[in-house]
Design a protein that fits this description.
The protein is of the alpha+beta class. It has five helices and eleven strands. It folds into two domains: about 120 residues, Sandwich (Immunoglobulin-like), CATH 2.60.40; about 60 residues. The longest helix has 22 residues. It is a single-pass membrane protein.
Length: about 200
Amino acid sequence: MKLFGFYITSLFVAIASALNIQGKIIPNAVLEDVSKIDSSTTRIVLNGAQYTAHIQSNGEFNIPHVQPGSYLLEVQSIEHVYPKIRVDISEENQVQAAYTGLGIDWNQRGYSVVYPLEIQAKAEAEYFMQRQGFNIMGMFKNPMMLMMGFSAIMMFFMPKMMKSLQNMDPEAANEISKSQADAQKMLSDMPSLSQMFAKR
C-alpha cells in the first residue's frame, strides 16, 4: 500500500513539474493562409516523436505535459519546410527557444525565438527536380565541341598561314604541313553532331 502511494505521489509530482509548450504557425509570403494546413499530414514533434501535437485550424498548437529538459522541435509537413527550434525547459518551467539546424553543435545556440513560439514556413517542399531544357551555351562547354571548334579554326587559318610562310625554309614548311594533316585527321575521327545527339 505504501509503495502504491509512493507511485501516486511521484506521478502527481511529475505532472506538476510538466509544462505545456504552446505556439503558433503564423502566415507569411510562403504560407499566406494557415487554415489551409492539412492537419492530417502536418504535426509538431519533440525529439523525433517523444511528444507530438497536431495543428489547429487557426495555426495554434499545444504540446502537453513536457518534462524539463532540452528538446528539438520540428514541424513535420509534406507541403512546407519549417525551421528547427531548440527548446529548453528549466526545473522552474522557464522556456527558452532558439533556432538550430542540422550540423550545428547542440551547445551552440542560434537566434532566440519568442515564447509562445511563432513559426513561419521557410519554403514549399519540393520532391522533384525540374528537367532542364536545351541550352545552346552548354554545348560550347562540352570538351568535344571545343576540340571541334579549335580544329575548324585551324583548318580555316592554316591555308592563309601557308601562303604567308612560303618564303620560309623547307623544314618549317614541312612541319606546318604535318600539323595541318594531323588536325584534319583528328577532325575526321570525331563523331558528327547527328551521331552525338543520336546517343542521347
